[in-house]
Amino acid sequence: MKYLSIDQCDAYYGKLKVLDCVSLDIEKGDVLSLIGPSGSGKSTLLRVLVGLNKPAAGRILLEGEEIDYQNKRSLKKARDRFAIVFQQYNLFQNMTALKNVTIAPVKIQRRPKKEVEAEAVELLKKVGLGEKLKSYPDELSGGQQQRVAIARALALKPEILLLDEVTSALDPELINEVLDTIRLLTQETRTMIIVSHEMGFVREVSSKVAFMDAGCILEVGEPRLIMENPDTDRAREFMTKILHH
Amino acid sequence: MWDRVAEELPRFFTYYNVVFFLKAMFTTFLLSLIGCVLGSILGGLLAVIKITKSKLLWPLRAVALVYVEFFRRIPFLVTLLLIFFFFQAFGLEVSVFTVALVSVWVIATAFIAEIVRSGLEAVPTPQWEAAEVMNFNLLQTLATVILPQAWKVILPPAFSFFVLFIKDTALASQIGVVELTYSAKVLNNKGFSAALAFGVVLLLYYILSYPLAKFGAWMEMKLEISKYRSM
Lengths: 245, 231
Fold this sequence. Notes:
The complex is a heterodimer of chains A (245) and B (231).
Chain A: E1 4-13, E2 16-26, E3 31-35, H1 42-49, E4 57-62, E5 65-66, H2 72-79, E6 82-85, H3 97-108, H4 113-126, H5 142-155, E7 160-164, H6 172-186, E8 191-195, H7 199-205, E9 208-213, E10 216-221, H8 223-228, H9 233-243
Parallel strand pairs in A: 3-8, 3-9, 6-7, 7-8
Antiparallel strand pairs in A: 1-2, 1-4, 4-5, 9-10
Chain B: H1 2-12, H2 15-51, H3 58-73, H4 76-89, H5 96-122, H6 125-133, H7 138-168, H8 180-189, H9 194-226
């Protein structure tokens, strides 16, 4: 039985088909990176997993159990096991960094406030923001906000962490501080799906890489294989372009 | 004209007239206050219904949409008369004050619903999404994430509506509710000059609306500050 199995999923934005019969298996502990040109459906795939876009066809199974995205209870149960970090951080603007991290564990997961706060402080220290607990999002730089967002996701204790182009909105100088944080996470055994354009980073941290184009997964395999010696022309073309820019 | 006003003054400010004005002022105050408070409650509810996405709730959304569009598009006076004749048609014996009260409630609800809706929609969608994927339900999302960010957008137009609304309650005089405008008409008809009767009423309207506008400005300031402190 596969840990997470995406089975022939389609998804649409209005009439535009953005995922076309996507199938993908992920083992527990995998760090899978999705690469490919913009608009190829990488982010959509993550959004489909957490139910922000509903799959129009196909099935998604978590430990053999199908997630029914139309059913509130089933979706809720699945969302308890995922956490997603967005490209634009999406921190709650009305809350401090600490509150952003503690709000869901305390209010939604109903865990004791003291315990959660202590953990949140540790998490924020871990991402290098021990000094910024009381800062509001608009008082933080992009890189700092993104690290708070990562801490917020981790506080939920997710089994599967989804990272959606977490460095794309950042200044080049700030990218590394976020990548360093993620590097730390990949050393713990946690299942992660990463959408990224940072090829060097992808190659370094991933156990598997999937190449997407026009809503389809064209290739899946070891990073070295996919990135150096892809089978399809489309992937080869993409790699050549991105490695020589 | 001024010597006529000066001559009328001692006769004008009799105990009876002062009480008459104060009572009328209280009626205007009650109509405005109850209209705004009840209107805010129901209007807020309609706004929340309007922004829901669930397929099951579409009949509620349709009702909210029709209600808001209808009552925002017809004049206050027409609404007032509609409700007046509605009560009559069903043979319900209610005071004109009740009719006016129901009318202001109905109207305030429609306008406030739109003000709140636009405020809620001013909060970017990703804030909703971030809450949704963390399993916040609708009420939790509204209470902890959306409303704290939407107040800034809702309050200024809401208070300017409240202030306008105090003056709009004058239309209740058309069905015989003794509120401020009506009281001026009565005294004018009794022979006092219009300048004096309506001048006093003008002042009393100002006394009602000025503190409200001030209160609105104070609330906006307080919310602006609390964003950075005390949370």
